[in-house]
């Protein structure tokens, strides 16, 4: 789990020092920086996957640095995992508007665990890279770097927003493309089929919760394509109409998104960190409440980071799960709420009420 995150000089985030918990729900008005916070994890994944040079060439360093190269000289970040290991990097711009890694390090907290001979105070840092176009962390598989590696490779931002007729979420997929659920849900049929065959208990849980928000849905009907056994389509059976053919194109936008979310959160081997941008999009209020329950359950095994505009979703969480995002002093400002400071308000109002009434901020 990420227990602490420090960011400097990234997009609207001039300076951030934030403790993270098992559940982290970001709320705020449009344009305050929620998406920039979420996109930081995309940057982390890009660095890990050694795609920084191409990404920064496409995006441009001026669009990634806080108010561009004229105002900000570098992007720097420090990520702590379970108070024991850490990863840090510093990115600097080139003359041709790209970014390179000027410093890259892993760290070990000497006061936490490990060999008693290492015990001490503060962090011990090991520089693994400097002045390079791409990261070295992916290739560092011994010592502290091996632990950091496990976390960084799991950072994926899930977007199930595209539900158009030709969206990846509604498309057939390769049968064996089932190692993990992809960020856009493009392998949803093959991943569900994998769960059906290998983890039937989890598969049944997914079917049951889909039925609870879509009463017309009876069950999935998953099997390899009859004419091409290497492909599979998301087929299903409608209640009281077993003779009719239905596939992903027949689901409403909200239902197909909910299926993808339920599959993500009910899979047996959860990613260490699950990051979702506006998961409530297109969902009925009942489905949003079900989603909140899935998030809480998954947080026992995985750290959840989401951004939302949904008052209904916020109502399902405690104050300490909520991070408000506002814009002030020409930067994004993040604040984790505290139950104690809101105790008197919460006797009469829900968290969503306090948000609407502008008691907790995160409003225009």
From TrEMBL:
Superkingdom of origin: Bacteria
Signal peptide location: none
Entry-linked Gene3D superfamilies: P-loop containing nucleotide triphosphate hydrolases (3.40.50.300)
Residues in ATPase AAA-type core domain copies: 23-315
InterPro entries: ATPase_AAA_core, P-loop_NTPase, RecF-like
A GO biological-process term: double-strand break repair
Any GO MF annotation of the entry: ATP binding
Record-given protein name: ATPase
